[in-house]
Design brief:
single chain; mainly alpha; elongated
């Protein structure tokens, strides 16, 4: 299900990109700024979500390593 959602989002971004280039060819750069802005917004949102997910995974791995190092897995608690 996730794969189909990703494919759908890629199709939407591709369609917006084609529309932006079509607008640029027909009316010029002035009228194609808004369609290109939508493409850049979608790309930025996707990149931000991906980076946040990666950062969360890195932070989680660091936290697990810290807990293991401090003996958390053995039943010791960390001072607060």
């Amino acid at each position: 299900m996730t794969f189909s959602i990703v494919i759908g989002l890629v199709q939407i971004i591709f369609g917006k990109t084609v529309a932006a280039f079509k607008m640029k060819a027909q009316k010029g750069v002035k009228y194609s700024i808004a369609p290109f802005a939508w493409v850049f917004c979608y790309y930025g949102i996707g990149t931000g979500i991906r980076a946040a997910d990666a950062e969360f995974a890195i932070a989680r791995n660091r936290q697990d390593g810290l807990y293991r190092y401090c003996g958390y897995r053995l039943g010791c608690s960390l001072p607060v």
